[in-house]
Amino acid sequence: MPFLIDARLECRQPRIRILDKSTGHTLCEWGQAVIEQWQEAGEISLLDFASSDETVIRQLMKDLFLFSCIQDIDQVKGLWRKECSACGQCHQSPAEVIPLFPSDRRH
Fold first, then answer.
1. What is the extent of the structural domain holding 25?
2. Cα 28 from Cα 65, distance rounded (Å)
3. Number of other CB atoms surrounding residue 22 within 10 Å
4. Is residue 102 part of a domain?
5. What is the number of domains present in the chain?
6. Which helix (H) or strand (E) holds 14?
7. How many helices and strands, by DSSP H and E, does the chain display?
8. Which residues fall within 8 angstroms of residue 95, CB to CB, at 6 or more apart?
9. How does pLDDT run across 59-68, given as a tens digit for each residue?
10. Can you tell me whether residue 102 is helix, strand or coil?
11. Residue 8 lies in a domain
C-alpha cells in the first residue's frame, strides 16, 4: 500500500496526515498540539518534511507510524485505568470497562 504524507505546517492550524495513496483515506492525523510536542521533544524536524531524500522520507514515515502506535497504546492504557480516552471506538462506558489488573490484586 503506497502512502502519502500531507503536511500542512505553515497554516494557522498545522496538521500532519498520512493518507492511503490509492484511496485517499486518512490513516493517521495529528494537529498543532501534538506537532509542537514532537518538535519540543526533538522527535521530529520540520525540515525532514521538505526533504527530497528518499531515506529521510522513509524514516519519517516509520516515525509517524510509530507515533500512531504509541497513541493507540496510550488510549488502551487509559481504558485499563478506567479513564476514557474519548476515542469513540468503544461501546461501553468507562465504568463498564474491566481493568486488566484490579487494584485489590497483589503481585
1. 3-96
2. 8
3. 10
4. no
5. 1
6. none
7. 2, 3
8. 82
9. 888 888 888 8
10. coil
11. yes
